[in-house]
Records
---
Amino acid sequence: MNFIDTATATNDLISILLGITLSAACGFRVFVPLFVVSLIGVVGGWSLPSGLGWLDTDQALIMLAVASMIEVFAYYIPWLDNLLDTIATPMAAAVGAFVTAASVPADMNPMIQWTLAVIAGGGSAGLIKGLTSIFRAGSTATTGGLANPIFSTLELITAILLPVLAFTVPVLSGIAIVGLFIFAGLKLWQFVRKNRTQFSSSSYE
């Protein structure tokens, strides 16, 4: 493999890491990561992938700022945050798939592009959203929602940091995402096993 091929492969990998990282961020908040990317493009002057070029406009920045503000404040309202999780889960998966598809190289085979987008992008956003929903539901059940603002704040910080890392230190963001996926997968598996065991026990009573 010559230097040009190596550089192209590296750029392709970075683009894929960018898409998956942004998708995972959408699992924490749907609009906030897109707002951060728009801010990076409009104010920071960074060059965005061609598929995300529409975010590099003042109109997109304003609309996403409004949507992000509504989303952020809504998650600090007790019980409404749990309802939002139900609504946001399919939305996060859809946006995650779209963001990954828009971030990968433009010359990628469409079948590979959308397979990667649906599985890696939509899957990562759905996995993260599923994990946060479980934590929030548990917090609501054990504290009556008093601890929910703490989770909301941590989610917001993560939703902001991941896009920033994706553009500034893509390799580090990739490592963070792998660790996050492992943690989320283990927690979801524990949740499924626990509930399956409880269901089985109640069935025999």
---
Amino acid sequence: MEQTYFRRGFGLKSAIEGALATDYHSRVVDAVKARGYVLTVDDLTFKLAREFGFCYGVDRAVEYAYETHAKFPGRRLFLVGEIIHNPHVNAKLRDMGVECLHRPDRGEFDFGRVMPDDVVILPAFGVTAQDLARLRAIGCVLVDTTCGSVLNVWKRVESYARDGFTALIHGKYYHEETKATASQVTKYPGGKYLVVRDMAEARIVCRYIEAGGDSTEVGRLLEGKASDAFTPERDLARVGVANQTTMLSNESLAIAAEVRSSMARRYGEGALGEHFRNFDTICSATQDRQDAVTKLIAEPLHVMVVIGGYNSSNTTHLAALCQERVTTYHIEDAACIDPASGSILFRPVGTHEEARKDAWLPPGPVTVGVTAGASTPNNKVGETLERIAATRGASLAAALG
């Protein structure tokens, strides 16, 4: 009988290394790193964050997708959603013949075209327990690229549900990873979850934990963000905190501390073990990139450029961190920079629409900080540096030799 579930790769790295290098490598980025992450060209200085771009989980997912293409020639290949939140990478997979399956708003993925002989790639974010069960029922080959950091969160959430604790998840309720994480509680009878987006929503929950009373405010918060038949007076008595791995780590830690304090005030420090749980589920790669950009923006910079998909959670959080200290432009791709007109197309922090800025580089000597989300390949970082230089009439090729 053919094996239908794979998680550990196919041992084909040597067969795909050339394609990966062609699609994602950057000589420019390598050269800037070799110069201590700083490059000066005429009156323009670039400073790269010490950690940026593809993390281990993303690198593994992309590599595994390329291996899958090599492993199953002649088979139809499908991808549930996007492999990662980067339009360039997903476009490359489509060019290779991988068909992306999409979920309509408030709907389910349509697996109607998937047949037992097909191969389906599960993305780095993972899929919901329900979608996995549907795919298993079809009998197709499943190639699971779910990130290990995400799996670690799932284990914690499952343990909460198994022991009768509600999983309070710091995340974006509509994000694929959070949907997949929340679904893990359904493996246990009576498993419950609630998703909070930020500290403001967490404090609504905390007020109810401490004082009880009218659940109207919590009810408004719960709409679309909680498990079925969620009852605050019952399901907020025992809570375990978890997080979407790409959220701001300091906010996740602060929310956990806030919930702990509310539980202690309600039930007493001596009873905390019966009412509150928390484990460190912050992704080390997310933490490293946030730490690196925090150090970078402490230096003198004129502007900061953050590269990555607009729907990439970890990228938007990097942009939010930068905006606190320096004028920041979150761009999806190098093509957002137009050297000829001197303009930049970007998404302002906290908005959902692109904006255009003319003469975005200030005159005179200028220092530009650059970082990229964990889903952004190095070649897109290198192309961005080249376009910024060209905006000032400079050439990186001449500077790098």
---
Amino acid sequence: MAVATPTAVRKQIQAGQADPVYLLQGEDEIEKSALAADFAELVDEGLRAFNVERIHVGDLTTGDKLADGVATLVSAVRTLPMMVPRRVVSVMQAETLLMPKRESEAATRALEQLENLLRQPEVQTTLVFVATSVDKRSRIYKLFQKHATIVECGAVEDLADAERWVRTRVAVAGAEIEPAAARMIAERAGPDVKRLRADIDRLMLYALGQTRITADDVREVVGPAALQDDWAMTNAIEASQAGEALRQLALMLDAGAAPEKILGQLGWVVRAKFPQIAPQEVRTAVDALFRTDLDLKRSAGDPRVLLERLVVELCAGKRSRSLGSRRW
């Protein structure tokens, strides 16, 4: 039928004009899950218990289980809606159903039933398949191309998409973000998903434990993209300014600085400055440096995340020492 964006599908849902069958695919699990949940808006809230059904098929690993699973799915789709114009049936982990690992007579029959369902969908039911990916060369995918709306999840097309992307990620982390704060991040990163993800990861690390993220938090971490000098990050660590240090780290990485070079600067500030500004934290800081160095060498994580964690630890140690000095 068509290829649609998540934004376009949400407009269909808001208008109450959903298509009979959708395939939500892509690596962005959060986007897929959020969009699949939005389909419930097609049904009045008080009647969703009778008309919204979610089926998990991840454990359908044998032909017999596939046959039973498809039979359950067909029955759910063909059930008439109760007191509303349509039902919604979502199939989670659908790649297991659409591309079974083991072929057998039972699996073949199950796929045939599923193909018939795609060819003749139930007009009073919206059927939503949620999958990581489907082989585009397969017969089942070609049927989706002909009879379903395919949605690629993970792409950010405009500022509105970026703001929604930010709000969704913060909500998944158990917090909420002020509209102005979400807009600020979206305007800074634009439709660059990689940069959006990095900014959100850095922001959530900075605001760890907070239930609400404010515009001030965003300014501290992902403010104006202006790198003052190569040593602005280490200066911020000396001043116990974790937000500024994280921001300067991001600017250095975005400008192409090698993680090893940045680690060298952090090593310098620990060796040259910590004995004077935080002597009780030197051993802990050195241990954190060695751990990060080892993790970088063995590729034990995203270099950006490893360096962000180290910066936060160094700022925390410096801050705890400074607070202790003030009490005296």
---
Amino acid sequence: MNRRSILYSLFVFVLYIMLQVFLFDNMVLFGTAFCFIYIGFILLLPFEISKVMLILFGFMTGFTIDIFYSSLGVNAASATLIAYLRPYWLSAITPSAGYEDVHQPAMRIMGFSWFITYALPLIFLHHLSLFFIEAGEMYHFWLIVKKTFFSTIFTFAMLVIGQNLFYNRERMI
């Protein structure tokens, strides 16, 4: 990563954290669907980022949210999990010809159907791990699955809306 992309990533990191803490913290639909927009930072990091940096960014993002939420590492564990799994998932869905000159897995560049294939499983795994760790037991299994399903849809919808509003092809790094 060059200096410009590091500064841009730092700005985007602060933006996602502020959105999560100040806007999406209290945004809950029907007591079931929670929005964890901060994982968009991890999902939209450039393709060429190293695995170590990706995991460090994942942990740092989740840990920062844990500081604001006083949640004892729940977000850090879940964000680190998807940061760890992201390169493997990307290699599983990569076409045989590769990604040409694409640097970032953004919806506007890759297309909506590709973004669904890429983001939904990672968002689902993040939410599933987060709610299971938070519950601490299997007693509330169906409630956890319900919260995971609806929160995944809610978070994905907010990421799609955010990308349509704020990202454009010319500005992508």
